[in-house]
């Protein structure tokens, strides 16, 4: 499938691996894909992101990703469902971090057992990349571009899609921004 990726999409995948390495994560996640998309310049996805989430709003987006990661990646819906069962996620996070340090639930601590030489992709990140292929096919595009990865991130669910939606980056808004850029 990687051979169908445009140069911009390949750059996103490579950038996601670099983000995972820098953070000490053992696997590449959808969050790393989004962070790599945010690094892009002069591509269809970066232009759409700049229009929908201007640079001055990016710190808020990154802070929301960090907050969700601290809660072990639970979405608001997950947190609300647990609250309905009488489970206070905030209290659990506080207790775990009190004992094990800040970010203990983030799952991005270095794993001394990791030795393959390459970061693997989490099941969720693989789903995003597979969905980017389906998005490209549905749009009748011959190659998978970085815009397809962004569109896939908005529909995959989980905290990354939730954070994007909270910042005005939805499938519909990205589709409109990308379609507008293609006709301009």
State the secondary-structure class: mainly alpha
Distance between the termini: 29 Å
- Counting structural domains, the number is 1
Strand order within the widest beta sheet: 1-2
CATH A-level architecture:
Orthogonal Bundle
* Low-pLDDT regions: 108-114
CATH class category label? Mainly Alpha
Q: What is the CA-atom radius of gyration, in angstroms?
A: 17 Å
What pattern of helices and strands is seen along the backbone? HEHHHHHEHHHH
Helix content: 55-70%
Describe the structure in brief:
With 184 residues, the protein is mainly alpha-helical. It has helices at residues 7-23, 30-39, 44-52, 58-70, 76-84, 89-100, 123-138, 146-155, 158-166, 171-183; strands at 27-28, 120-121.
Give structural notes.
With 184 residues, this protein is mainly alpha-helical. It has one domain: Clp, N-terminal domain (Double Clp-N motif, Orthogonal Bundle). The protein has helices at residues 7-23, 30-39, 44-52, 58-70, 76-84, 89-100, 123-138, 146-155, 158-166, 171-183; strands at residues 27-28, 120-121. A two-stranded parallel ribbon has the order 1-2. Helix 1 packs across helix 2. The chain is globular and about 50 Å long. The two termini are 29 Å apart. 33% of the residues are buried.
């Amino acid at each position: 499938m990687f051979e169908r990726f445009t140069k911009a999409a390949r750059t996103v995948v490579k950038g996601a691996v670099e983000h995972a390495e820098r953070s000490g994560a053992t696997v590449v996640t959808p969050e790393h894909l989004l962070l790599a998309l945010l690094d892009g310049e002069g591509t269809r996805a970066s232009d759409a992101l700049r229009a929908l989430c201007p640079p001055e709003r990016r710190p808020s987006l990154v802070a929301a990703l960090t907050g969700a990661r601290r809660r072990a990646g639970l979405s608001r819906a997950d947190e609300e469902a647990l609250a309905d069962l009488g489970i206070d996620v905030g209290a659990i996070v506080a207790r775990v971090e009190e004992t094990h340090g800040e970010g203990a639930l983030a799952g991005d601590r270095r794993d001394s057992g990791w030795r393959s030489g390459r970061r693997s992709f989490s099941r969720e990140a693989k789903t995003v990349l597979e969905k980017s292929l389906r998005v490209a096919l549905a749009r009748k595009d011959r190659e998978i571009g970085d815009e397809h990865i962004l569109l896939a991130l908005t529909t995959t669910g989980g905290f990354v899609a939730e954070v994007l939606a909270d910042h005005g980056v939805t499938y519909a808004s990205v589709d409109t921004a990308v379609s507008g850029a293609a006709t301009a």
